[in-house]
Design a protein that fits this description.
homodimer, alpha/beta, Rossmann fold, Dehydroquinate synthase-like, alpha domain, two-stranded antiparallel ribbon, about 20% strand, binds nicotinamide-adenine-dinucleotide, binds zinc ion, metal ion binding (chains A, B), cobalt (chains A, B), zinc (chains A, B)
Chain lengths: ~350, ~350
Amino acid sequence: MSTVRVSTPGGSYPIHIEAGRLERLADSIPHDATAIAIVTNRTVAAHYGERARRALAQTGLRVILIELPDGEAYKDWQTLNLIFDALLQNRFDRRSVLLALGGGVVGDVCGFAAATYMRGIRFVQAPTTLLAQVDSSVGGKTAVNHPLGKNMVGAFYQPVAVDIDTDVLNTLPPREISAGLAEVIKYGLIIDAEFFAWCEQNVAALRALEPAAMTYAIRRSCELKALVVSQDERETGLRAILNFGHTFGHAIEAGLGFGTWLHGEAVGCGMVQAAELSAATLGLSSDSVDRVRNLVEAIGCPTQAPDLGAARWIDLMQVDKKTEAGQLRFILLPRIGQAVFQSVPAAALQAVLGKTVVPSL
Amino acid sequence: MSTVRVSTPGGSYPIHIEAGRLERLADSIPHDATAIAIVTNRTVAAHYGERARRALAQTGLRVILIELPDGEAYKDWQTLNLIFDALLQNRFDRRSVLLALGGGVVGDVCGFAAATYMRGIRFVQAPTTLLAQVDSSVGGKTAVNHPLGKNMVGAFYQPVAVDIDTDVLNTLPPREISAGLAEVIKYGLIIDAEFFAWCEQNVAALRALEPAAMTYAIRRSCELKALVVSQDERETGLRAILNFGHTFGHAIEAGLGFGTWLHGEAVGCGMVQAAELSAATLGLSSDSVDRVRNLVEAIGCPTQAPDLGAARWIDLMQVDKKTEAGQLRFILLPRIGQAVFQSVPAAALQAVLGKTVVPSL
Ligand SMILES: NC(=O)c1ccc[n+]([C@@H]2O[C@H](COP(=O)([O-])OP(=O)(O)OC[C@H]3O[C@@H](n4cnc5c(N)ncnc54)[C@H](O)[C@@H]3O)[C@@H](O)[C@H]2O)c1
Ligand SMILES: NC(=O)c1ccc[n+]([C@@H]2O[C@H](COP(=O)([O-])OP(=O)(O)OC[C@H]3O[C@@H](n4cnc5c(N)ncnc54)[C@H](O)[C@@H]3O)[C@@H](O)[C@H]2O)c1
Ligand SMILES: [Zn+2]
Ligand SMILES: [Zn+2]
């Protein structure tokens, strides 16, 4: 078993990474817990609900299972209320514990429920998608969507533990694996050039879910995310670099309608665009841009952006939560393994859009 | 002007207390703010909305006013969403600031909106009821109600400043003044016997809103609450003493239907009951019990509890959020000025209910 430690002002906790970790979930429940609710969705419950329930029953505590509908469309207040209803009907008190069993949607909603039920109870993350294992379960961002914007209502709230079972990736659709790998290579690009090179060399093993390669990729991703988050829990500065590729990516997701491309696919393509913008404004070498494009392609993500119309592109990028006082800023790479946050001339942005967007005929 | 400082792990901030403070609200807005939303309700807006807007316009920032419906019945998710809608429609970003102008309902809802909009933006409390000035605006508890329980969804989230204008109490109905005074004398009872004696001596001046007396009572209350909260922001121990009288009080509020008695009225009566229970179990002198009853009466709150039926009384007290693993515990006074938290024999509780409840004929 690998363990990575996360330390933030809001809490310090272990990330356990191992094959079969679901069987040992009881180890992550605090000793003074009074009851446990597994929060999951229908799809994940069908695969792993019973296994998680049996493992948690070893604590001797009452365990209930709260099954949410599956999908980003349900990441909203109504779904959150399903959790509150179940907790109150079952008289869950302040010492009860939630366990998020699922992808980023379940993790974000369950985390926000934990942050706000009785002003905060403890929760454990048991992420079951690659994206959730390397990204959303670590760092304490929780949220639901609002009709006027994604993740607009939420909290910074850390789990008491993250339990990653690498075995569960075997039931995940390949497209979701590719999307998760986009976030993996993102860490290499913004902070660890060696890890990026390692990903280039091991991309076939990763796509084949080869256990040793996958475990290392997850561990290194968690370490790098933990490093960033421990220095800036609330995204007042450094943490913004984790959004590399995301301003372009969000525009794609919103422009095509959320769910058309997976988040990771949009980020993959967005990283290629951000690399081009880095070349245009910071002198990132064309060789490096090629490496980014080639690896995004090799993990199975698109590298050519959809044609949303130039004005619409700019507009959609402006809605991004990272905008401040209306100014458009980007995470850019002076070189692979290093990221900076800065505003760019409109002309450079236009040129990059011209170059990376596939004109629709 | 009096200033009291609150220091908690979640934030350190000043409480400014002075007549006419509303005119100087601009002083409490952080220098890097990008926009301000005044969150208030219809009643308060009619009295003070324009004055607050003019004062905040001195910052040179955009100021919008969000007017909520008035009443505890609106302390819910729908009302919270009115705030999110307005903030998103007006493109408020992470550096925008909310100002809660109103009583405890506005403060709790606005505080929770600030805690969760974009995972947390800054907010200022400008409490306009006595209860909000001496209690709810200080300490960072925010919440909305759920159909299955009051304040069940919320967050611990500290304001950046509290601005108390003692002048606004002049438009407050006398019943609300009495209810607020119940929380004032509560601080004396649990932590400061001298302050309790001062309240006994100055009760006429307080009820007449005599400025010097009122300013002192507010300041001392804020100091005492700040003292408790700074030692236990998240109510894991000591902070529970602030609930003196509240287990009985909540049963009255819920039993009669919320709003029949004001919260402070129910707490006033609940403190008399808790004093009786302290006499029965901890030997609080009958002289002290009389002093509690006399002062609760003198501030204009009821001292005799309604007849809800003995079984219903116990049932309602058990629903209280302070219950843990089903055990009924009370804040009790060994003497005036000191509080402890402990469980009591059922027989003692029955006896006190028999003594303090007015049988309906
Ligand atoms: N909190 C953060 O820091 C953070 C970071 C990135 C993304 N996110 C959020 O995460 C969400 C996306 O997460 P996601 O990509 O995991 O999507 P998801 O949660 O929707 O999961 C994708 C699909 O895979 C299914 N699934 C999950 N585990 C499975 C398994 N083991 N086998 C088979 N099917 C499985 C799910 O039911 C779902 O249909 C977005 O809402 C995004 O905003 C949050
Ligand atoms: N957060 C905490 O720590 C905390 C502590 C105690 C109570 N509370 C909460 O506070 C709420 C009760 O607060 P409240 O007693 O202030 O009630 P409230 O907010 O409903 O105000 C009472 C009434 O007075 C009106 N009003 C307010 N200021 C006025 C003024 N200056 N002149 C004329 N009318 C005015 C209001 O519109 C309302 O009709 C409850 O929801 C309770 O749960 C919170
Ligand atoms: Zn992402
Ligand atoms: Zn109270």
